[in-house]
Amino acid sequence: DQQVKQNSPSLSVQEGRISILNCDYTNSMFDYFLWYKKYPAEGPTFLISISSIKDKNEDGRFTVFLNKSAKHLSLHIVPSQPGDSAVYFCAATSGTYKYIFGTGTRLKVLA
Amino acid sequence: DARVTQTPRHKVTEMGQEVTMRCQPILGHNTVFWYRQTMMQGLELLAYFRNRAPLDDSGMPKDRFSAEMPDATLATLKIQPSEPRDSAVYFCASGFPYSNQPQHFGDGTRLSIL
Fold it and tell me: In sequence order, what are the beta bridge partners of A64?
């Protein structure tokens, strides 16, 4: 049973436009959410996170939004750049430091 | 920049052989995780350790997989005997839960079982 779901396996966006990556979760006990970015042949690298007490967190071009009632979070990248092309994983945890990851969304930013 | 180091980066072997993957966590990190990446499941947690003690290995097939931390600088994941369905990328991650810092990942071991 997938507790964290990324329903879009892939997404293509024009350079300069907004990329929106989505993630849904089922466990209402999750209280901390993270996004990781992964390039081919490398390990995932941390991108941005959000606590369940917030609904938005921003870091430069990256913003994560959390909608607890809908059990949904999204990652916005504005403006998108070709170097953002990677696989993005969302993860959730319930305070145990044990992350549950989604299956990933492959983002392709077209120049 | 401190990094999690995994060896080997690639491993190709025949079915039935023993496979050992190694991980050197970041110095000072007291929690180590093993994940497996597959197309269908994404990043699955196999096992994790805190202060070298296993906390959860429920994600691991117990009959053939084993994970250990012989010391604070080395974590190992063994598969014996290996099967073709074990082919995947295996990642190690480390962290320090009390610092509010996220887990840091190594670059993985790509395992192919023929």
Answer: A57, A75
The answer to whether B56 contacts A98, with C-beta atoms less than 8 Å apart, is: yes
Q: Tell me the residue length of chain A.
A: 111
- Phi, psi (degrees; rounded to nearest 5) at A84: -80, -10
| Single-letter amino acid, residue A107 | L
Contacts of B107 in chain A (CB under 8 A): 41-43
pLDDT class of A103 with cuts at 50, 70, 90 = very high
pLDDT tens-digit readout, A21-45? 999 999 999 999 999 999 999 999 9
Q: How far apart are the C-alpha atoms of B78 and B61, rounded to whole Å? A: 11
Q: Do A103 and B40 touch (CB under 8 A)?
A: yes
pLDDT at B97 (0 to 100): 84
Evaluated on CA atoms B109, A40, A26, B102, the torsion sign reads positive
Measure CB to CB from residue A43 to each of B48, B102, B106 and give the nearest one: B106
Residues of A in contact with B48 (CB under 8 A): 98
In the β-sheet with A72-77, what is the strand arrangement from edge to edge? A4-5, A19-25, A72-77, A62-67, A56-59
Q: What residues in chain A have their Cβ under 8 A from chain B's Cβ atoms?
A: 6, 34, 36, 41-46, 49, 89, 91, 97-104
Amino acid at B54: P
